[in-house]
Amino acid sequence: xxxxxxxxxxxxxxxxxxxxxxxxxxxxxxxxxxxxxxxxxxxxxxxxxxxxxxxxxxxxxxxxxxxxxxxxxxxxxxxxxxxxxxxxxxxxxxxxxxxxxxxxxxxxxxxxxxxxxxxxxxxxxxxxxxxxxxxxxxxxxxxxxxxxxxxxxxxxxxxxxxxxxxxxxxxxxxxxxxxxxxxxxxxxxxxxxxxxxxxxxxxxxxxxxxxxxxxxxxxxxxxxxxxxxxxxxxxxxxxx
Length: 240
What we know:
Keywords: Membrane, Transmembrane, Transmembrane helix. This protein is mainly α.
């Protein structure tokens, strides 16, 4: 993803260099932890009847906790290994909370969003490996700028939500909101290409092995973002 977790790290060579296999293994491990955490939160909250307002609070807290842990990992890579598991568990709380919120409205949407996320990730990997889409500096600049703009917009929307309001048109489920959601989902998906390219460049540079945790955290953050956007988009389409 075009986020600080990967793109802002200062690479450092080491005696033992990172490898693609190492990043894949660590990414799979963190993804499994996030899935288990999310599934656990989902089932527990469903069984005890935690209110949607509490789930929203849990989601917001986990978002900011995840951002904090991710930024520390990016700017202090030596802590990435220790923070990787807490980060994955925190992302799991976010996933479980928002999935249950959507499940109570449209029961089939979470599974559809999960399927769409993994299918899209596989497609992005194929497009990158085969060279159909190349991550040029121009491509990177466009996606990074879009991610920053979306992030600012989401922060503004969060501010509106805290006062019981919302940005007009973009989040009301109408045609403009659907179009905007499609755009954000595409940006989130293309961000995964930047993750793949960052890993490839890190390996070519001989970056120290402990950076595998930094890259894995970044990949997990992108996949979580993709899932959230698919959840929103498919929810809008169900509403229609």
